[in-house]
């Protein structure tokens, strides 16, 4: 059976990566397989998660020379069909997006177009939501293009902001109720589309 080979780019603890690993383990990632994890710094928790799941993992420092070129080479070497940015804190250049032939998707911890774009990442997103006083936030999975958080939306899920929330409390709720649910769903949707396109060319 044809499947899409998926690479996951990570920068930290890897909780969204774990959601993808868990989805694959229970058979929910039918159209794709996690084939490579790339961490942009050594020692992050996501590396251990990848190793425990038996997924090949490479560390390519984002601040090192030719980061994007090395990532593209790794993707090509592993015959990757799609890329998932799961807690990846870098912004990929337009040149990278144009050079990789498959889709790239990203999970963002807000309801785009709110609290997104350059500078909005991690706890900053949730602090901004609290500062603005919104009653509902959430998460968005979208395609990546040359504009930060500017690609077409694939899935969104709303999460309530509760009285007394801190950025850390809100971050945890958004992860549990939205990010860890949406990202595996979106990965399967995009992988299924890749498989359909492959089958049409056979």
Give the SSE map.
Blueprint: E1 4-10, H1 15-25, E2 32-39, H2 45-52, E3 57-59, H3 67-77, E4 82-85, H4 94-99, E5 104-108, H5 123-132, E6 136-143, E7 153-160, H6 167-201
Parallel strand pairs: 1-2, 1-4, 2-3, 4-5
Antiparallel strand pairs: 5-6, 6-7
Helix pairs in contact: 1-6, 5-6
Question: What would you say this structure looks like, in words?
Answer:
This protein has about 200 residues and is α/β, with parallel strands linked by helices. It has six helices and seven strands; from the N terminus they run E-H-E-H-E-H-E-H-E-H-E-E-H. It has helices at about 15-25, 45-50, 65-75, 95-100, 125-130, 165-200; strands spanning about 5-10, 30-40, 55-60, 80-85, 105-110, 135-145, 155-160. A seven-stranded mixed sheet has the order 3-2-1-4-5-6-7, sandwiched between helices. Helix 2 (about 45-50) links the parallel strand 2 (about 30-40) and strand 3 (about 55-60). The longest helix has about 35 residues, at about 165-200. It is globular and about 55 Å long.
């Amino acid at each position: 059976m044809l499947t899409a080979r998926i690479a996951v780019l990570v920068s930290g603890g890897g909780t969204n990566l774990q959601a993808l690993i868990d989805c694959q383990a229970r058979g929910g990632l039918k159209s794709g397989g996690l084939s490579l994890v790339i961490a942009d710094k050594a020692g992050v928790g996501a590396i251990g998660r990848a190793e425990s799941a038996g997924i090949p993992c490479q560390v390519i420092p984002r601040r090192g020379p030719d980061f994007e070129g090395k990532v593209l080479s790794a993707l090509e070497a592993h015959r990757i069909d799609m890329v998932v940015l799961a807690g990846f804190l870098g912004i990929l250049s337009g040149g990278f997006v144009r050079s990789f032939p498959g889709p790239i998707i990203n999970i963002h911890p807000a309801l785009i177009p709110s609290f997104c774009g350059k500078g909005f990442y991690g706890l900053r997103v949730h602090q901004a939501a609290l500062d603005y006083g919104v009653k509902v936030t959430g998460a968005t999975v979208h395609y990546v293009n040359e504009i930060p958080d500017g690609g077409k939306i694939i899935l969104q899920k709303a999460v309530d902001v509760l009285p007394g929330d801190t950025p850390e409390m809100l971050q945890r709720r958004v992860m549990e109720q939205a990010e860890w649910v949406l990202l595996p769903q979106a990965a399967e949707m995009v992988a299924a589309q890749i498989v359909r396109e492959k089958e049409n060319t056979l």
